[in-house]
Amino acid sequence: MTELSTLYETDYSAWTLQTADLIRNGRFSELDIEHLLVELSDMSKSEREELANRLLILIAHLLKWEYQYQLLSERWREFDGRSWQRTIIEQRTRLARRLRKSPGLKSVIHEVIAEVYPDAVDLASAETHLPITTFPMTCSYTLEQLLDKTFYPQQ
Prior knowledge:
By secondary structure, the protein is an all-alpha fold. The chain has helices at 3-10, 12-24, 33-67, 69-75, 82-101, 109-128, 143-147. The model has no long low-confidence stretch (mean pLDDT 88).
C-alpha cells in the first residue's frame, strides 16, 4: 500500500489535495489510481442520482397537476396549486443548473426519465390516492416539456 493510498483511508481531504497537486504537476506515476477511479466513478453515479431524483419529483408533480389539480380546484375553491407549482419550478431550475454544470448528463437523460417514471407514477398515485392505472404506462412528457418553465399539462 502506497503512502497516498494510506492517506485515502486516513485523511480523505488531504488525499484529494495531494492528488490534485500531483495531477497539476504532471506526476501521474505517483497517483493512487485505484482510489482515483473509485472517486471518479462515484462522482458520475452521484450526478446521475441527483438527475434521477429531480426528474422523479418533477414528473410526479406534473402528473398530479394533470390528473388531480382540476378535481381539487373544483372541489375546494381555495386550492390553487401554488405549492405544486413551486415544486415544479424548483425542480426545473435545479435540473437546468445540473445540466449546465454537467452537460454529459444530457446523453443519459432519456434513459433516466424511463427509469424514474414508474417511481414517479407510484409517488403520484400514493399522494393523490388515484389508481396507478390512471396514469400513462410511459412518460408522455417530452424532454422539452419537462424543462419548459411555462409548460403545465392539462387534463
